[in-house]
Amino acid sequence: MITLGVETSCDETSVSIVKNGRQVLSNIVFSSLKEHKKYGGVVPEIASRAHLETILPCLDLSLKKGRLSLKDIDLIAVTQGPGLMGSLLVGLSAAKALALGLRKPLVGVDHVIAHVYAGFLSDPHLTFPILGLAVSGGHTMILRMDSPSKVKILGRTLDDASGEAFDKVAKILGLRYPGGPEVDRLAKGQDSALFKFSRPFLSKDSLDFSFSGIKTAVFYKVEQLKKEKPLSLKVKKEICSGFQEAVCDVLAEKSVRAAKMEQVRSIVVGGGVSANSRLRYKLRRCAKAASIRAVFPDFCLCQDNAAMIAALGSALYLEGRRDTLDLSSYSDFMYHPSV
Ligand code: KG4
Ligand code: ZN
What we know:
Blueprint: E1 2-7, E2 12-19, E3 23-31, H1 33-37, H2 44-65, E4 75-81, H3 85-102, E5 106-110, H4 111-117, H5 119-122, E6 130-135, E7 140-145, E8 151-156, H6 162-172, H7 179-187, H8 212-228, H9 233-262, E9 266-270, H10 277-289, E10 293-295, H11 307-318
Bound molecules: 5'-O-[(R)-(carboxyoxy)(hydroxy)phosphoryl]adenosine (KG4) and zinc ion.
């Protein structure tokens, strides 16, 4: 079965073709990131206009790379939400037009669950049940997945998402947007003990997260240091390291704790922050000590991409899921877990 996936939830326009739910034939991603950089964050109107301009070239390129034509497509999968409303609507409209024109079935896919499901594209031996850690710019969640459609949310952030905390701390330090990769790069080889930040909620039994406190602690630390003298690059690097260590400790320890509680043997991490080198190291080490497998997506599948949408869409289709042309987008506020 050949599935065409469409993803336009934020600033990446992506069209991908996946064969039999696991084999990525093409995964084209156009990003409008450059256009947002000067504003220090994604501007929804700019993002949706960029999707309008790039969705068709993206589709053409994806078919070309996969050496296929539209008539070879069996199923259309599309991101339904959560995401920016205007951006989601571009992808949904394109996917519906394709489904209607080609007379092919349509399946709407949850973006956050798809980030976790990307692990199945990277690890052919992965099987359910899995413990998912979704860490992106907009979400941080611990999920239990027993099948593509049976998903239970065990914990979530009560304030900032983990990626958002990285971006905000980078901004406080005067680094470029998006901040996650910058903080990761600068923290390398630094002593994380020089600036120690608290590990929020780590001592609590709850699997929820809170990251806004660490961000505020970094802000006050920076303000205090700046009163003495301007921050040197070395000090910025040390702060990045201390902050990253605190966030990664919480993410790693909580997900391993959740896997133990749920008696699940595989932790699958997904979303932009899953590219973080320190998180990869810490979670792998922490999981190994508990004889649990830690699965991270390939780097190209950490960011927003349509391959994860096509993969999850085809798995849902095989379970019997069908959507109609009145499929609507949903935002964070309307977001309800499926189970
Ligand atoms: O999943 P994603 O591409 O988009 C959303 O669905 O939000 O995640 C983007 C987020 C940004 O906050 C970015 O700073 C963060 O992922 N990120 C990282 C790294 N690479 C991207 N955070 C920490 N370390 C990284 N290496
Ligand atoms: Zn995402």
